Recover the amino acids of this structure.
């Protein structure tokens, strides 16, 4: 307590606390007014001062102008669908429909269907606010915006006229920054949902933000699974151990080559904290918020995925089409940095051994960036029943298919 | 007149390349380009204080505005009608054409230096140049501000403050948060008269 206040005895503790809180809020708001959330920590001059989030064109790249992608020898890359503006998450229905979500640009959900060998892309929902989170479960399509999760029952039989959505969960904070979602049902039958940091770098209520939580399919029974998570838009469950693994996007503006984005493993659901906003990449305390903190107090990343790499969707490879070495390896879409002067983007593969150690991470699907410019940016990956891999691209507005052999 | 005819020629070229010489389609593209000039001025320099000059705007910015108008996410009766049935190819070709028009000159007349400097200080505090370039020429999805019609810029800033316009991301809402009409007016005044 302030000695002067104590001496004079003018202000009860509760009033003082309220004043301090109000002052803190006022200061926080003033700071927020000065800089957009994504610009906090940005250098004032030089090439670093000129970077802004990269906006994709609002029209999809025509099919004959899509980037020429390359995969290792023996693999074949083809365009699965073009004209899918702002293609983000990929999910497959039981009857074979491929659902594709979108984010900033389109606000739509698409369905890709096949009939008599002809593939068709149709918009099934539109006018949604940042509807990146989708999941298919027991015949229903789950859709998550920053505000709520809803469900469209029996969707595959009603693609031309989707039913009214059923509310699943609406207790989300709804912030735009890192409020967009990625959804997965786990092997435990629960729906896993991330809530990112409402800022680039800040302290926030840890019971509300910076976490992955899970709920029952009907929205009940919320429990936090992982804490200290800045912004994950990709996770999957190990096919054998059933453990949750997730990618996490680290803070902006620290440096050209720091921090390094993370691949993480949740060994102790409900207990694990991955360090944000205090520790980045498992090795560096935050220059502002990290004083007095130690990275030893947080779970170390399973692998580092590159500076500002923006790792998004990830899947364990569970198919049999690809060579043996890819079995249970993780395919990771690296969307590529905006917050770095040198750009790159690819789908990488992380090999995991029997002890949960990542032994190596290497590029798998390349050709998304050329002359420091994005021609495409991968967002999500999905293993198909035949073992081929679908990859979405929100920059070119397309879905690619990678297959092996034949 | 040279700029105008060169722009027309390039528009014809774009039209014929993109639309594979389909005369009817090319004609409709020409109609749409003529429709731009009717309100935004022959060289994309607007004669109407409430209508923006479009000359020299970055191509991606123009694409986004036409896209927002087409999707009904930016509201303006005339623009919504014009963009309604625009194909992706037309939208791209028109944006190319608009980006190729000459940029507007700073607004004329006597400059109120005190007001100009107030606007400059605000622009610096809100790091406008970080995205819009130090000469406010704009780039990518971020528009040119230099030489823009003052009352149009003021309305745009007010729209961002009210959330009527959002833009490609939420950056503008934060950039204008907490500024009153007088402050936005100073900003618009400064940008309309900006001299490098």
């Amino acid at each position: 307590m302030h000695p002067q206040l104590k001496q004079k005895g003018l202000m009860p503790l509760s009033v003082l606390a309220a004043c301090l809180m109000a002052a803190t809020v006022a200061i926080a708001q003033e700071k927020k007014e000065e800089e957009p959330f994504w610009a906090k920590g940005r250098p004032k001059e030089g090439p670093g001062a000129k970077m802004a989030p990269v906006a994709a064109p609002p029209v999809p790249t025509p099919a004959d102008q899509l980037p020429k992608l390359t995969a290792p020898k023996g693999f074949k890359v083809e365009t699965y669908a073009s004209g899918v503006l702002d293609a983000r998450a990929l999910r497959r229905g039981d009857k074979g429909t491929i659902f594709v979500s979108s984010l900033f640009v389109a606000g739509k959900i698409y369905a890709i269907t096949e009939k008599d060998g002809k593939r068709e892309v149709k918009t099934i929902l539109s006018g949604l606010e940042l509807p990146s989170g989708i999941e298919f479960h027991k015949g229903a399509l789950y859709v998550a915006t920053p505000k709520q999760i809803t469900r469209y029952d029996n969707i595959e039989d009603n693609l031309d006229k989707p039913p009214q959505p059923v509310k699943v969960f609406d207790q989300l904070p709804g912030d735009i920054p890192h409020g967009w979602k990625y959804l997965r049902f786990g092997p435990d039958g629960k729906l896993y949902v991330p809530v990112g940091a409402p800022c680039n770098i800040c302290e926030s209520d840890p019971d509300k933000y910076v976490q992955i939580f899970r709920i029952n399919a009907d929205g009940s029974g919320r429990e936090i699974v992982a804490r200290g998570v800045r912004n994950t838009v990709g996770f999957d469950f190990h096919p054998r151990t059933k453990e949750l693994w997730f990618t996490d996007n680290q803070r902006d503006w620290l440096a050209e080559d720091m921090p390094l984005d993370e691949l993480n493993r949740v060994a102790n659901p409900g207990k694990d904290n991955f360090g944000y906003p205090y520790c980045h990449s498992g090795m560096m305390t935050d220059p502002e918020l990290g004083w007095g903190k130690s990275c030893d107090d947080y779970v170390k990343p399973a692998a580092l995925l590159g500076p500002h790499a923006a790792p998004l969707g990830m899947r364990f490879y569970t198919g049999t089409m690809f060579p043996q070495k890819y079995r249970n390896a993780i395919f990771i879409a690296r969307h590529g940095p905006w917050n770095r002067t040198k750009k790159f983007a690819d789908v990488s593969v992380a090999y995991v051994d029997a002890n949960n150690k990542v032994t190596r991470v290497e590029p798998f699907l390349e050709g998304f960036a050329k002359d420091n410019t994005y021609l495409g940016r991968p967002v999500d990956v999905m293993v198909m029943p035949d073992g081929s891999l679908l990859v979405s691209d929100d920059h070119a507005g397309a879905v690619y298919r990678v297959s092996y052999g034949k | 007149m040279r700029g105008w005819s060169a722009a027309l020629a390039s528009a014809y070229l774009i039209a014929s390349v993109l639309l594979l010489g389909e005369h009817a389609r090319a004609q409709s593209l020409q109609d749409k380009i003529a429709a731009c000039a009717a309100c935004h001025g022959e060289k994309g320099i607007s004669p109407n204080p409430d209508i923006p000059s479009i000359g020299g705007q970055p191509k991606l910015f123009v694409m986004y505005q036409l896209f927002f108008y087409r999707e009904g996410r930016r509201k303006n009766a005339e623009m919504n009608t014009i963009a309604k049935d625009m194909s992706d190819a037309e939208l791209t070709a028109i944006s190319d054409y608009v980006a190729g028009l000459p940029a507007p000159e700073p607004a004329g007349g006597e400059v109120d230096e005190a007001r100009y400097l107030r606007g400059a200080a605000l622009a610096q505090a809100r790091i406008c140049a970080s995205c819009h370039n130090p000469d406010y020429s704009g780039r990518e999805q971020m528009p040119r501000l230099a030489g823009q019609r003052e009352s149009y810029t003021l309305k745009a800033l007010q729209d961002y403050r009210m959330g009527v316009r959002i833009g490609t991301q939420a950056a503008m809402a934060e950039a204008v948060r907490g500024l009153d009409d007088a402050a936005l007016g100073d900003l618009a005044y400064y940008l309309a008269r900006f001299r490098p």
Q: What stands out?
A: The CA atoms of residues 278 and 288 of chain A lie 9 Å apart. The radius of gyration of chain A is 22 Å. DSSP finds two helices and 28 strands in chain A.
